[in-house]
Every structure is written in structure tokens, then in C-alpha cells.
Amino acid sequence: MNNNIKRIGVFTSGGDAPGMNAGIRAVVRTATYHGIEVVGIRRGYQGMIDNDFIELKTRSVANIIQLGGTMLKTARCEEFRSVEGRTKAANNLRKRKIDGLVCIGGNGSYTGAMKLYEEHQIPTMGIPGTIDNDLFGTDFTIGYDTAINTAVDAIDKIRDTAGSHNRVFMVEVMGRDSGFIAMAVGISGGAEAIFIPEDTNEMELLLSHFKNASRRNKSFSIVVVAEGDRQGGALAIQEQLEKEFPDLDVRTTILGHIQRGGSPTARDRVLASQLGYEAVVGLLNGINSKAVGIVAGEVVHTDFIEAIGKSKNIEPRLIEMAKILSH
Ligand code: ATP
């Protein structure tokens, strides 16, 4: 163990994701077990600049594992993008005698942490916290499992009300530039079509699907659309479908932020606990500027620069399979 570290800071940054609290809890409990003090930094980098710190003890993180959101709050902070902003943050950390950090966030947060180390030598370990699952260096990110379960639950409810004829239900899900959420939700929701940014011929397939009148007369169809899809989202696809097939009754539901909320699933709680634990163990062993992840069941540490620069791709076989199962 690297005995230089006596006191660490933990913060959540970027978009919130269910399971972040379980991650904070794991960081605090692992550190205190090893005799390391923990300071919670509220509102991410903004709180670092504003001196928004809170001492965290083992009991401070009791009864939060089941809660969505983040007890430390999160923020996006423009000031931290400047050298001056980071210097202010580093000075505040030094005043508080914080000699290591655990950052729960995404690519932007990792970039900030990397710069903080380059300029001020404050070591950080990163934990992937985003519902989008779009981070390299881990099979799953914290919050993804909860988000897809929330979206599938919504689709199941839409199915329940879908009694009438010729109706197409478009469901737009989150995911930013990636289709992980849409792919998982489309497969588990039994969708007829799944629009993701990674695959460009879905519109052609959907149009040819509905050219068959018997399919148009099916009682209902479900189409899942990733918000980052290149057609322009569910409403744009709805417009195209209605133009081609005026007899189709198309309804769109944009699920939006409900996908970010709610109590984390058991899977997200376990993942966040593992990653929180490993991040602290890594810091204490002198590992720095790396994101912790789990790939094929193994704990891996990926350099921030690699985690930020590389993209994680959806398995092409999964896309192929989804097309076959929905035909
Ligand atoms: P999410 O995936 O939820 O968007 P993220 O961590 O990628 O999470 P960002 O908003 O991109 O979210 O970044 C969070 C914060 O990290 C920013 O508000 C900013 O303070 C800091 N940050 C991002 N990019 C940089 C950068 N290039 N240099 C310094 N700090 C940065």
C-alpha cells in the first residue's frame, strides 16, 4: 500500500446516474476500513472551486445504497476547464489536506481529473458513472442497468394499452451518441425495429416491413429509437412513416429523464460497490489517472487517456441478432 495517502476526496460529476450513491458508500467504507479519511466534494468540480466539502464517515453513507441520484449532487463546471479554475480547486484540496481523489463520472470528468494531475499532481481514480454505457474500459457503466429496466418497464406498459389496430408505437430512449440503451431496450421489449446511431439501414428495413399490408394491419408494432439516431429522433421517423403510409396511426413517446431516476437495480448496486472498492484499493496501491472497470468479469484499470480516446462498440452480432428476432 502507498502510505502517502491519508485523506481522499470523492465526488460525482457530469450527468447523474442511479448507483452513484452505492459507489460513494463503497469508497467511504473501503477507505475508512483502511484508516483513510474521506471528504465528500459536493457538485463535482464546482464544489472543489467553491469549497463545498463535507466530512464523510462510515455512518454518513448509511441508508443510501438504495437511492437514485447522488447524495453529493453533481454539476457541470465551466470554470474548471481553465488553468485558473483548476489551480483554485487544487489549492482548496491542499488546504483540506486531500491527497487523492475518486471521481465518479464520464469522459469529461476523467479529462478534468487528468489535467488536475498533470498540473497539480493530485492523483485520481475514475469510476464510470453514466446511464449511456458508452465508456471504454468497462463492459457496463453504473446506471445503465437501471435505465434499461426503467425503459423496458415503460414499453411493457405501452404494450398493455396497445389494443387497437394499425398502430405503431415509437419509443425514444436516451443514450446520447450511442445505441447501447436502445439496443438492450429494443431486444428486451420485443421491438419490430431498433434505430441506433451505429446502424444506418434501419429506415429502409422498416419501410419495407410496412410495405407488406398484413404487417400494417397487425394490431400494433413497437419501434425503439435512440435519441442520437441519425434519422433525427422518433418524431422525425414518425413523420417519414406517416408520409409513406397515411393509413398508419403512429404514436411517439419520448421517455426522457425518467430513465435517469429511480432506485438502482441490484446489478448496478453490485457494480458500483465493486468499482468504488477497487478505486480506493487502486489509489492506496499507487495507481493513478486510471478508470476502473470490469471486463469479462475481471477488474481492469484503463489509463484515462485511453478511456477518453477510445470508443466502445456494440457487438455487431447483437445488431444482427436483433434484426433476425424481430422479423
Ligand atoms: P456525462 O457522461 O454524464 O456527460 P461527463 O463526465 O462526460 O459525464 P461533462 O459535462 O463532459 O460530463 O464533464 C463534467 C465536467 O468535467 C465538466 O463540467 C468540466 O468541469 C469537467 N471537464 C470536462 N471536460 C474538461 C476538459 N477538457 N478540461 C477540464 N475539465 C473538463
Give structural notes.
The model has no long low-confidence stretch (mean pLDDT 95). The radius of gyration is 22 Å and the shape is elongated. α3 crosses α4. The longest helix is centred in the last third of the chain and has 19 residues, at 266-284. The chain is built from 12 helices and 11 strands. β4 (100-105), α4 and β5 (124-128) form a beta-alpha-beta unit. 41% of the residues lie in helices and 19% in strands. It has 327 residues and is of the alpha/beta class. The protein has 2 domains: 7-143 and 264-309, Rossmann fold, CATH 3.40.50; 145-260, 3-Layer(aba) Sandwich (Rossmann fold). The strands form 2 sheets. It has a 7-stranded mixed beta sheet with strand order 3-2-1-4-5-10-11, sandwiched between helices. It has helices spanning 20-33, 44-50, 83-95, 107-120, 144-161, 180-188, 202-211, 213-216, 234-244, 266-284, 304-309, 316-325; strands at residues 7-12, 37-41, 53-56, 100-105, 124-128, 167-173, 193-195, 220-226, 249-254, 290-295, 298-303. The structure holds adenosine-5'-triphosphate. Adenosine-5'-triphosphate binds next to α4.
Quickly describe the structure.
The chain has twelve helices and eleven strands. It is an alpha/beta fold and 327 residues long. Residues 13-15, 45, 76-77, 80-81, 105-109, 111-112, 115, 130 line the site of adenosine-5'-triphosphate.
